[in-house]
Amino acid sequence: xxxxxxxxxxxxxxxxxxxxxxxxxxxxxxxxxxxxxxxxxxxxxxxxxxxxxxxxxxxxxxxxxxxxxxxxxxxxxxxxxxxxxxxxxxxxxxxxxxxxxxxxxxxxxxxxxxxxxxxxxxxxxxxxxxxxxxxxxxxxxxxxxxxxxxxxxxxxxxxxxxxxxxxxxxxxxxxxxxxxxxxxxxxxxxxxxxxxxxxxxxxxxxxxxxxxxxxxxxxxxxxxxxxxxxxxxxxxxxxxxxxxxxxxxxxxxxxxxxxxxxxxxxxxxxxxxxxxxxxxxxxxxxxxxxxxxxxxxxxxxxxxxxxxxxxxxxxxxxxxxxxxxxxxxxxxxxxxxxxxxxxxxxxxxxx
Length: 351
What we know:
Blueprint lengths: L14 H8 L3 H9 L6 H13 L2 H10 L6 E6 L5 H16 L3 E6 L4 H13 L4 E5 L6 H16 L3 E5 L10 E6 L1 H14 L5 E5 L5 H16 L9 E3 L4 H13 L6 E4 L2 H13 L9 E3 L16 E3 L2 H13 L8 E5 L2 E3 L8
Parallel strand pairs: 1-2, 1-3, 3-4, 4-5, 5-11, 6-7, 6-8, 8-9
Antiparallel strand pairs: 10-12
Helix pairs in contact: 1-2, 1-3, 2-3, 4-6, 5-12, 8-9, 10-11
């Protein structure tokens, strides 16, 4: 399949291209951009119009940023305040530093336009890699957009890395680093069922998010493997935050759903649920067993310590950097998968 060049991240243009478009010399363009030599207003206007039309502004800015000569790579995510993403960022930064690269971090708050602007700047700077992190809505539009970004970055000598995101269609010059999300959820739910629990409440994430989908699929598959049909009322949707866990747990208790165990979509969700259970006068695991997902450091310090799924977030970050820097930018798609495992602690007990 032939892909069109993405608007705003087109083919590279040189200072001579700008000069030709503006009808001036390359040295005049350099003076206008440098701002250190007087030029007429009309000349400046023509040059800056050509700069905008050829998207040369980003390239000029990037060269200024790169003046020190330190190679860079970019780490792009929606929100860095989540503990799991913070650990992944730590892995990226440490591995980048070990390999002599500067790591730039951009948080987008879920704004696709902001993400695109940052990618444009990184492409213009000839960053060694752009690493996009976190689940997403896996639509045809998303795949097409990511494929265009991958092609555009490769044309500039950069590599797109998708970390914790689904792979693209075959042939895109992209590296995908995933962890076994669904199998981790399957193993965790299987552990709860093996303890005799038959009504397991799932505190899930956004149904359109691929990470949330994988964890729900694992939950359902574990039930199917044991010939159990879970009550649909036991599957609640929210997001991956502590406040979501607290709110969903209060709703579940108010509706008297009769669950004996809870599988939270993240450890942060589990922390909020634990507070709500304590507020209701229920003990964990005496009255209700509780499990999370991610194995972030504070999970072991909850009361009781939390049974959860360990995800190697820091290694994901390290691997994303190592792999991107050892692959040719235009190399075909590559897909790596890291394992997960259940960490059994005191928050789960037999029914």
